Amino acid sequence: MKPGDGIATRAVHAGHDPARHQGAAVPPLYASATFVAPDTETLEGLNTGAVQGFVYSRIRNPTVLAAEQRLAALEGAESAVLFGSGMAAIAGALAPLLKAGDTLVATPDLYGGAQRYLAEALPRQGVTVRLAASGSAADVAAAITPETRVIYTETPTNPLLRIVDLAALAGLAHGTGAVLVVDGTLGGPMNQRPLQLGADLVVHSTSKYLNGHGDVIAGAVVGSRKLTRAVRSMQQASGAILDPHPAWLMLRGMATYPLRMAQHNRSGQAVAEFLAAHPKVTRVHYPGLPDHPDHALAQRQMTGFGGLMSFELATADQARAVVDRTRLFGIGASLGGIESLISQPGSTSHHSVPAERRLAMGITPGLVRISVGIEDTADLIADLDQALA
Ligand SMILES: Cc1ncc(COP(=O)(O)O)c(C=O)c1O
Question: Helix count (H) and strand count (E) of the chain?
């Protein structure tokens, strides 16, 4: 079956052909660890690749493959590889690209878990990690050395929603023979297409918008067939695969991803505008607001700005009180789900980042992060209004 070009059509149809699954209208769940062949010759062919099919679910599983094909179609990419978490996807994307003696240059405002991986895991493998002074192309260029094999960035950033100029970083990477890897979790393929801007690999925590229902931890690496083949080969060797059950939930989640994302975008903009006008809020970080430092770049690079934002109150105590007083926003980490969440990044997403570095990154004690879900916008604004009162 050939899906149409629209993203909502691809979200529903890509990766599934009912005719190949007893007419099942939606993708079935193949919860089978192994697959039996009709005879030894076929099994040998399956193992060498001479025969197309399935042998063992760590190597390939029909449900996981369907979810990978759906995600690749959403992203407009040749291929996608699913992992057991977003962090496993980040590690899995970097694994075939780096060896001892190489250098990775990263922009500084990364998800706390990614910072931890770069600081704790890569140096143990003999890889040097250089953090650019900022996400600007000039600062990234200044950090590049002849040993640089990967430029790693995240946009929009979490929790300050800064936007990195991907076309500029792709130009830098390709000028030096490096590969540009982008964590696109906060944008998702509906709001931005890093591959079309020159990125080589996109990683997602699909635990967020792409699955969207808050019931799956998973991640993905998306890109060209050539690069993802190397990623998959290392994944099969290390075993960090996604089980078919969460892949099946992801197939369902991705089917409504464009609808949900449109609501996150609409509601996110309205909530950001409400907060920006509130007298107790000293600053709102949301790329859809005209006073955001990267608003012009965001308008060029993105088609929507999502449901994640952060805002500042005068003190940590005020921030804590607002978090505790909301009723519809669950107090918790994560983002991109149907349900709205609220947290103080210093004690959740960035708790593993040392306090001085947090401050240097702009994560102030009075910073509150919200993930706007798909509830009624007016209800969410009324809840924040009473919590701020
Ligand atoms: C931007 C970003 N990248 C990666 C991750 C890690 O994803 P996971 O929790 O699925 O391992 C997160 C998790 O919050 C994130 O926000």
Answer: 15, 12
